[in-house]
UniProtKB/TrEMBL annotation:
InterPro entries: AB_hydrolase_fold, CocE/Ser_esterase, Galactose-bd-like_sf, Xaa-Pro-like_dom, Xaa-Pro_dipept_C
Alphabetical list of SUPFAM superfamilies matching this protein: alpha/beta-Hydrolases, Galactose-binding domain-like
Xaa-Pro dipeptidyl-peptidase C-terminal domain: residues covered: 289-517
Hydrolase recorded as keyword: yes
Gene Ontology molecular function: any one: dipeptidyl-peptidase activity
Key words of the record: Hydrolase
One family name in Pfam for this protein: Peptidase_S15
Transmembrane segments: none
Protein name: Xaa-Pro dipeptidyl-peptidase C-terminal domain-containing protein
Organism from which the protein derives: Rotaria socialis
Length: 695
């Protein structure tokens, strides 16, 4: 980039209507011309912009501000450096009320041109979508949302596909939100009342195990007609939110002035975080600049982003390969539905004969609640061979593929099933069996058996039901010599909490009710195949690849242990940060899932988080230069702590179930609150109990 802007950084307070002040950090370009004004790009979240997230957000800030945007990062009420009582959960009315005023106050800045864009991934994608659809502050002109959601019940992490899900985020967000506010980290009665003794969010969500007003109020799928702002939506095949972008496009494109969609080979990150992705990335921040230049600036030199087709898809040829291409319409008009029948002999067939049509064989599966480790922690994260999982599933394979089959979109599945218990879940995975016999995950989905109807009802044991599933958005190419596989199970642990009854389930192989529909796309001849979209070929400039010298950690751990009575899964991650002010932070997240082999209701999720802050750690050129104690889970630096202020927050959370109830036991401890090794410990304990509601 030629002639980038220099900039300054400042912290300021944004005062809400009730007097609570939210902490805002602004990066402001230095004008090159008299009276030059700049649009504002806002990220608004609870992830502690001034310590835990400080190093992470710097590359984005520098990239955007040097291209002529005021970049604002704001901590949500009661989190990070902001004042106020911790919000009671994600995406509250209070968060959105404050967000409206935040946009208004930022737009009033005399250095601003009065136009605001919201952007981000995950939480900031969610509230960007909500602000654009449900609130419409006048100064908000466009959004850029990566890995968001239109449905807070089935397309978020609490009840994925309608089934209870637990993972490290549920621990970490509660844990970090109990920390005192930087930079002073004052630990007084006010902090204890407003943050440290807050009810854990997991307990809030367990009061709402079924879809309803609680989830629907801020799910934008119920307000598509209000989705009028221009939106750039980015989704990833290896992320849990891969459906949101195309769902919004399909339902809101008539209301919005412009929706642009990219679905690529991304994990829960921007495309330019290529070292974290299974497939090729590109400079995603450059796309943000192109988008916001058009909608927020008067001097946008080109209109190219408006002339491009709305949809860009990465057409996968494996888990790590493929090619980007434009699609000018959705659904793709040249798409053809290829129906394949789940048939006797564990076969997946395209045509049925008269004899087959008259038959209705039944395959039976013993419920094993502990299977599914290879399926990943959420849909799309499975990038390993699926054969160990498939050993415990009903598996149906096609004949060898003769001609290349390309699919794009949603795979529809119909199954006729029954269960010997009043509750069962069904999990369907579409897979690719390669020429070496390895099995690769393509897409999948789950159905909570009680949610086959509205309102939810238990199953009548041994009664056949026809259930419908729509597998999550995908692209894939099945090559000659491969086989198409469908794998069906009643568990996928630990991604989904098991249903509580021992049972067998049956699959009725009636071709009228048990089949899959593949959205196939006729292949383009090589001579007519268009070149890839230019923006997908642009790599981030070296000067904007920030050194990660001050962020580090240990490799993540995921292990599986089996004994006669139980299966145990262990996950652990440990990270280190060194901030410019000399603050060293370590963060440990450890999870232990234990599932009984004899009693499906007997499950336990034991977790703990530790976060250590040590101040005055100065003179080190990288995080790797700081010595770490090889003891006590390696969370403390091997330094003289007697002369340095330090403290530790520890959260221990145990979640478990029996046939009738879920139980939550949480313990928070703040060690060394006065900064010395001899100070007392502050402790908070919480216990919750919730009746299982069709889970």
């Amino acid at each position: 980039m030629s002639n980038p802007y220099s900039f300054t950084t400042e912290d300021r307070w944004l005062t809400m209507g009730d007097g609570v002040r939210l902490s805002c950090t602004l990066a402001v370009p230095i004008p090159k011309q008299t009276d030059e004004k700049f649009p504002i790009l806002l990220e608004y979240r609870p992830y502690r912009k001034d310590d835990s997230f400080y190093n992470y957000i710097q590359p984005t800030i520098h990239y955007l501000v040097r291209r002529g945007f005021i970049v604002a990062n704001v901590d949500i009420r009661g989190t990070g450096s902001s004042e106020g009582v911790l919000i009671e959960r994600e995406y509250t009315s209070q968060e959105l009320d404050d967000g409206e005023l935040v946009v208004e106050l930022l737009a009033r800045d005399p250095r601003s041109n009065g136009r605001v864009g919201m952007h981000g991934l995950s939480w900031t994608a969610f509230n960007s979508l909500m602000m654009a659809t449900l609130r419409h502050p006048p100064a908000l002109r466009a959004i850029f949302a990566a890995h968001g959601s239109e449905d807070l019940y089935k397309n978020d992490i609490h009840f994925m596909d309608g089934i209870l899900h637990q993972d490290e985020y549920i621990l970490s967000v509660d844990h970090e939100n109990a920390l005192p506010a930087p930079p002073q980290y004052i630990m007084d009665e006010k902090w204890i009342k407003e943050r440290f003794t807050a009810r854990p969010w997991i307990d809030v969500y367990l009061e709402h195990q079924l879809d309803g007003e609680f989830w629907q109020k801020h799910s934008i799928k119920y307000a598509y007609e209000n989705f009028t702002l221009p939106a750039y939506l980015l989704a990833g095949f290896y992320d849990g939110y891969k459906d949101f972008a195309m769902n919004i496009y399909e339902n809101a494109r008539k209301a919005s002035s412009k929706i642009k969609v990219v679905v690529g080979p991304f994990v829960h990150a921007m495309p330019d975080a290529s070292h974290r992705n299974p497939g090729p990335g590109y400079d995603g921040k450059a796309e943000m600049v192109r988008w916001f230049n058009h909608w927020l600036k008067d001097n946008d030199e080109t209109n190219d982003i408006m002339d491009e087709p709305d949809i860009t898809l990465f057409m996968r040829t494996s888990l790590t390969t493929g090619a980007y291409r434009y699609e000018s319409e959705w659904p793709i008009t040249r798409r053809k539905i290829q129906r394949m029948f789940i048939s006797s002999g564990k076969k997946l067939i395209e045509k049925i004969g008269e004899d087959t049509a008259a038959m209705s064989d039944i395959d039976t599966l013993e419920y094993r609640p502990w299977v599914g480790f290879e399926g990943g922690e959420w849909w799309g994260s499975a990038t390993i061979d699926q054969r160990p999982f498939d050993e415990y599933c009903l598996v149906y394979d096609s004949d060898l593929v003769d001609n290349t089959i390309e699919i794009a979109g949603y795979v529809d599945v119909s199954l006729q099933v029954s269960a010997t218990a009043p509750l069962a879940h069904w999990f369907v995975r579409l897979e690719d069996v390669d020429i070496d016999g390895q099995v690769w995950f393509v897409t999948g989905a789950a159905l909570n058996g009680a949610q086959r109807t509205i309102p939810s009802t238990f199953l009548e044991p041994n009664h056949p039901y026809t259930i419908k599933l729509q597998l999550h958005f995908t692209t894939w190419t099945f090559f000659p010599g491969h086989r198409i596989r469908v794998a069906i199970s009643n568990a996928m642990y630990p991604a989904f909490w098991p249903s509580p009854f021992s049972m067998n389930t049956s699959l009725y192989l009636d071709p009228l009710t048990t089949f899959i529909d593949l959205p196939t796309i006729p292949g383009l001849l090589p001579i007519s195949a268009p070149p890839p979209p230019p923006f997908t070929q642009k790599q981030i400039e070296p000067e904007y690849i920030f050194s990660e010298a001050f962020s580090g950690g240990r490799p993540s751990k995921a292990e599986k242990f089996d004994i006669v009575s139980h299966r145990t899964l262990i996950f652990e991650q440990l990270s280190y940060e060194l901030l410019p002010n000399g603050c060293f932070i370590s963060a440990l997240m450890a999870e232990n899932f234990t599932v009984s082999r004899t009693d499906p209701a007997d499950q336990k999720w034991t977790t703990h988080a530790r976060q250590v802050y040590v101040f005055d750690v100065n003179g080190y050129l990288s995080i790797d230069d700081i010595p770490i104690k090889d003891e006590d889970e390696s969370v403390y630096p091997n330094l003289d702590l007697s002369a340095r202020r330090h403290f530790e927050l520890r959260t221990d959370l145990t979640f478990y179930s029996d046939r009738d109830y879920f139980y939550v036991n949480l313990k928070r401890q703040l060690f060394h609150p006065d900064g010395t090794a001899n100070s007392s410990t502050i402790t908070f304990e919480f216990n919750g109990k919730h009746k299982r509601q069709f889970q």
